Amino acid sequence: MSFSQKQSTATDPAPAGDRRRWFALAIVMTAAFMDLVDVTIVNIAIPSIQRNEGAGFGQIQWITAGYALAFAAGLITGGRLGDIHGRKRIFLFGIGGFTIASALCGLAVNPEMLVASRILQGAMAALMVPQVLSIVHATFPAHERGKVFGLFGAIVGLGAVSGPLLGALLTEWNLFGLEWRPIFLINLPVGIAGLLLGGRFITESKAPRALKLDLVGVALVTLGLLMLLYPLTRGRELGWPLWGYVSMAGAFAVFAALVAYERRKAARDGSPLVELSLFKVKSFAAGIAVQTVFGVGLGIFFLVWTLYMQTGLGWSPLKAGLTGVPFSIAVSTAAGLSVQKLVPRFGRKVLQAGALAFAAGVLLYVWEAGRYGLAITTWQMALPLVVMGLGMGLIVAPLTDAVLSEVPREHAGAASGLINTVQQMGNALGLGLVSVVFFGVIGDHLAPARIGPAYVDGFRHALGWVAAVMGAIFLLMFALPKRPAQHLEAAAGEQLRTEHDKEPVPAL
Where does the record place a coiled coil (predicted)? Predict the structure, then answer.
């Protein structure tokens, strides 16, 4: 069950004088921060992992895409498990599993083990993250939630900025000779503390009329995405074998089977994984397309950007991490302005301006990368990154309300859960496409003198695709309402969850 549905069925909040609820808040927000930082911290260490562990191109894609895929596939189911079995219980199981998976990542003996551990980490995050705001609603009375959501927003912003910097520092310091491993091992003391304190201070809550699980739906979604993503990431290395094309074509047959099954599931017990009737709402269908395509573009950009700076230009992790700070600040600034000032006055035009600004920043970056080549500096990158960050901020904050504005109130929860899920799926797909739009350009077995120029060329080529994606998003946004209505009290809370689930994006 998604968040807005949970809200209506939550148990009574704790009494206003119960100080335990603030301890519970600190625990769940620490867990949210840990998940947020863990996603943003990894990209900066990818070149170090590739260099020290001998990871292939496909493997480094799966280190990030595997997490996103597992997270996306389990989000809705994770929320329903909390409704059925208790949010506290599932939260503790998720944070415990996330901590174990982090240890396995840090102790990985080869790239294959690291990829498997990252997939497990994403699955555990899918159990942990949906419970965070549900626990808040079950713990705090309505008059205190504004303050709580403000704190949550601050945590999200802090994690977006601190994740890349923390990853850069931990990688650069090479603590105890562990190279990149501390970026995962740092989760262990935090996770153990959260597990112990959560068992003591979090109050249990359930939904009296929770939706049933749709494990067949989850299996079909996961199978379809795997059939599409695996050939994309490995196809170039294997010479694009015939089975890869067959698998990608078969993925669409699996998705067709998913649609047929979800229709039967909805008619039988009213608890499908995907509420297909939502797609009859034009603005919602267009919004889902925007979220998916936006995820694809960002998935491509952030991985390619990291490889360009560290492998292509030879920059240190710390220099690369600091280069991303103007982008993160611009995202946060524009996000606040778009929701509070701009969207109420200009409506949909703000989101479309964001898409155009992002595209303009990307094209400026393409020009600068070609103009300055290997001699480009951090300061020369600042302008395109700020323009891109402003564009992204204008989109991410108000997009959820725009997508939900014409959705019937009774389906707001299902719609919000689906928005979160498809954005993560788009991100995983974008990471898979890196093998085509970037690695497919730079080639294999480069001579040392050719690595830098090849990575510059690959970066510029990949950014051309990102600019095209932003152009498509601009056109899709014409199907959104001209003035998104913010009439859903549940959507306000769910927007925070959506921003959190996009956490990996506004950072390096």
Answer: none
